[in-house]
Amino acid sequence: MRTWRKLSKLTAVAAVAGGLAFTATPAAIAAGDSAREKAAALTCGGNVFLDGIRALTISENGRDEVYLEADGVKIWPSGRYVSMAAGQRVEVDKCVRPQAALRLIEVDDLDPNDLIGRVILEGDVTKDYYFCCGGGARYRIGAVR
Ligand SMILES: [Ca+2]
Ligand SMILES: [Ca+2]
């Protein structure tokens, strides 16, 4: 039951975020991005909304294959991983508890996966966090309350 409610909440976040992003006009993109974040964060209730993740430096040649865990449970993406190039940003759009321990993991098929970094959220605040520096990589994730 609890899991179902959580999933239903996440679906609502995706719907709100997607809907607002889709209807934004080019002129409203700068302001609309912030409005989109706020609307999505509201649907997280007392939790923190993970907005997007950006690969500042990647660990491999070409692309990293990454996924995100919160408190030891994979929360993103729905597939096995997201393939990211240096500089690329991808929406995460997940709600997590305000003190969640996040880990960003890079998938390797032949070797053990790499831990890029671990952060513990600093409560109910809006700020950027950095996963660093496993494999020389550095990723930034935005948390919105
Ligand atoms: Ca690797
Ligand atoms: Ca890899």
Brief characterization of the structure:
This protein has 145 residues and is an alpha+beta fold. 25% of the residues lie in helices and 40% in strands. It has one domain (2-144): Immunoglobulin-like.
Please give a structural write-up.
With 145 residues, this protein is α+β, with helices and mostly antiparallel strands. It has helices at residues 2-23, 29-42; strands spanning 48-57, 64-70, 73-76, 82-84, 89-96, 101-106, 114-120, 127-132, 138-144. It has one domain (2-144): Sandwich (Immunoglobulin-like). The strands form two sheets. Strands 2, 3, 4, 6 and 7 form a five-stranded antiparallel sheet that branches. The chain has a four-stranded antiparallel sheet with strand order 5-1-9-8. A hairpin with a 2-residue loop joins strand 2 (64-70) and strand 3. Helix 1 (2-23) runs antiparallel to helix 2 (29-42). The longest helix has 22 residues, at 2-23. The model is unreliable at 1-29 (pLDDT under 50). It binds calcium ion (2 copies). One calcium ion binds next to loops.
Architecture blueprint of SSEs:
Blueprint (H helix, E strand, L loop, with lengths): L1 H22 L5 H14 L5 E10 L6 E7 L2 E4 L5 E3 L4 E8 L4 E6 L7 E7 L6 E6 L5 E7 L1
Antiparallel strand pairs: 1-5, 1-9, 2-3, 2-4, 2-6, 6-7, 8-9
Helix pairs in contact: 1-2
Bound molecules: calcium ion (CA) (2 copies).
The site of one calcium ion has 6 residues, from strand 2.
Beta-strand content bin = 35-45%
Rg from Cα: 15 Å
Secondary-structure element order, as H and E?
Answer: HHEEEEEEEEE
**CATH T-level fold name:** Immunoglobulin-like
Strands, count: 9
Biggest sheet record? 5 strands, antiparallel
Uncertain stretches of 5 or more adjacent residues: 1-29
Each distinct ligand: calcium ion
Number of discrete domains: 1
Helix content class: 10-25%
- The CATH class assignment is Mainly Beta
* SS element count, helices: 2
Mean pLDDT: 84
Shape descriptor: globular
The CATH architecture assignment turns out to be: Sandwich
Report the end-to-end length measured between terminal Cα atoms.
25 Å
